[in-house]
Amino acid sequence: MKRFLTVAAPALFVMALALPSAAAAQVAAGTVPNTFDRPAAAAPAPTPAPQAAPQAMSPTPANAASEETLRTIIASLQAGTPDYNLMTDDLATQMRGQAPTILPLMQGFGAIQSFDFVGSRSGADMFVVNFANAETEWIVGMEEGGKVAALLFRPAEGSQVPAGVAPAPATTAPR
Fold first, then answer.
1. Nearest to 153 by CA among 166, 144, 60, 57
2. Backbone angles phi, psi at 80, to 5 degrees
3. CA distances from 95 to 12, 90, 101, 171 (A)
4. For residue range 74-91, what is the model confidence (pLDDT) as tens digits?
5. What is the rounded distance in angstroms from the CA atom of residue 151 to the CA atom of residue 91?
6. Are 174 and 93 in contact (CB under 8 A)?
7. I want to staple 91 with a disulfide (CB 3.0 to 4.6 A). Which of 32, 45, 168, 173 is the partner?
8. pLDDT above 70 coverage of the chain, percent
9. CB–CB of 169/101 below 8 Å?
C-alpha cells in the first residue's frame, strides 16, 4: 500500500492541476479591464506652486546689538573660551559639540582686519569679516531676549580658504 501512495500521489496532483475548479471557473467567467487595450487618460500636469520673489536685503540691522554681540562671540572663539551665555541653549549645545573644530579654525584666521554690515533678511543680520588669513561671511539671528539663536559663518563669496585651514561646519539653531 505504501508503494501505491508514492506513485498515486503525484498522479492525483497532476490531475488536480488539469481539472478546473469551481473557483477558477468563476474567475475565468469574470472580466477584468485590460489597461493595455485602452491607455489611461493622461493626468493633467501639476501646476507649480507660486514662487515668492527673494526678499531683498534691508540696509538696516534686524537687531541693533548683533554687531557688538558678534564681535564678542568672535573674540571669545579666538581666545578659545566661547561665551555660551550669549547664545540660546540650543545654539550653545551645538557650539559645544563643534568647538574642537571651530576653535582652532578661528584662531588660525588671525586678527580682524575689517568688519562690515551687509544687510538683514528674515530677522538675521549678515556681516563680512575679513581676518588676516581669511575672508568670511557671518549670519547672526537673535531672539527677542537678546540671545543669539542662529549663527553661521563661511568663506566669503569668491574668496579662497587658505591652505591648511579647513572650512568650518555651519553652526545654526532654529529660531
1. 166
2. 85, 10
3. 75, 9, 10, 7
4. 999 999 999 999 999 999
5. 8
6. no
7. 173
8. 59
9. yes
Largest CA distance in the chain: 103
Alpha-carbon distance of 37 to 10, in angstroms, equals 40
C-alpha neighbours within 13 Å on the C-beta side of residue 47: 2
Instruction: Give how far Cα 12 sits from Cα of 3, 20, 24, 34, 120, Å.
Output: 14, 14, 18, 35, 84
At 110-154, the pLDDT tens digits run 999 999 999 999 999 999 999 999 999 999 999 988 999 999 999
DSSP per-residue string spanning 55-80: PPPBSS-SSTTHHHHHHHHHHHHHTT
State the pTM of this model: 0.61
Residues in the chain: 175
Residue with cell 526678499: 55
